[in-house]
Amino acid sequence: MQKIGHMIYKIGFGTVRILSLLLVGILTLCSLLWGYYAEDMTTQESIAHREPILLHLAGLAVLLFLLFLALKLCRPTGRRRSFLLAVTLGWICLWGLFLVFGGRSIPAADSASVYSIAQALAFGHTEVIHPTDSYLSYYPQQVGLVAYYEIIIRLWNLLPVPFSAHYILQCVNVGMACAIVYFQYKTICLLSHDNDRAAVCYLFLSMLNAPLLFYTSFVYGEIPSFAFLSGGLYLLLRYFLAQDLSATGHRLALAGSLLLLVLGVALRKNSLIVIIAAVIVVLWECLRARKTSLLLYALLLTLSSAAILPAISRSYENRAGNVLSSGVPAISYVAMGMQVSSRGNGWYNGFNFNTYEESHLDTAVTAQKSRDAIQTSLSAFRADPGFALRFYEGKFLSQWTDGSYFCRQATLAHGDARWGIVEALYTGGLAAFFIHYCNIYQLLVYGGSLTCLLALRHRRKMEAYVPAAGMPFYLGMIAVLGGFLFHMVWEANSRYIFPYFLLLLPYAASGLENFFKIIQNAKDNRKNYEKPV
Length: 533
Fold this sequence. Notes:
Helix content: over 70%
Number of helices: 22
Shape: globular
Largest sheet: 2 strands, antiparallel
Distance between the termini: 59 Å
Order of helices and strands: HEEHHHHHHHHHHHHHHHHHHHHH
Structural class: mainly alpha
């Protein structure tokens, strides 16, 4: 029986390694050749562009040169590395606050709806909890984000400050972005066995992450949710990989991980993909190590993640003395993901909202209409396989090769006049530069991740460069694989891919550090070879 379990573990581990390498290899190649981004910020249509390969390779060379220069000059150890972390967090705070107050972005569309409901509840207006006449009647999965915002707005209202409440939510996002960097920094330290250069590579990538800075102005769930997820993933990996934990420390790591991961789901339901990845890794390790504590953790994580949003909804319903509808059914998003949209294949075209409204907010009727729409799309795909191939090719590229990850469109709306240099990044002369920079940065992250996985694939030949890695090392990559599969079926948007891009950063840092070591060793070997005897 033990041999069978070991064989299953080995097959699963090998499958994850091959699929991860294949996906990241395709992403790297596609990022080099194509870019999907909007030229017109009014229509926000995502258009395919053949990238200027030589320009992007030159930009990539510049970034690599700067990184290698930093590695040569910094030589970080102990306190110096902590100082670099503090500098990175300070840099993110500085630019994040600059974009918050210089960009003057305000909540719009879904973001505005969630924000206004949270404001109303903070002032005691519970009529926004309604089965038909409320945004939550359509999208009850946003109730966790509403609760999070309500708590912050209530605290904000206690202060005699003239700024609108959305500014404090954006400032909290800046702090959450710092939390993301901190937890991922601690994660790369775990994954690389406290390798100084790998940590510096991660901090370098964090300082260059323009979409992360722009999304601090986005009053929605991406940044706070991923902050909780990154903390939860770090504590889970600490349980698996840390050598200095006591029995109590192991239990606290699992408890803290459980709490943070569930909070991540509460703020963004699509975070369930990361939860599934965590459960897969935990069960796989349970198969290998036969620890009942891991089985209990997986069960609690599954049940808590499934129950958190219904529990919050029930608390609001009790408070308001009213109920919320079950909302737009999930299958409507699948149907919409198989339709052409002006913004891109499978992107939002209003089908889910309009169908639910036309069905008088009847979930069962909407689900049936969505199934009919899916059959219509499948018939069109069967009648013209070439069209189906082009459709899903465009859907894939429009999500995964947009280096800006929709950050400009998501934060486009503004109240007071933007500062000139910030407006230039949205619609002015700096917009093209910003787009190309983001695509070059994306190529650096994809390429670094590919280098990491290739090194792990040939670990026996490269033991000097790569630490031993088991299934927990691939936790983030399993989530990326899940995100790829999910969003090829679900509604498309490059904004939805941004959390998975963040999950790749520790792998990219490890890969860039491996690349640096290979080059450094090649130079040393050449010097030794040319040295006169």
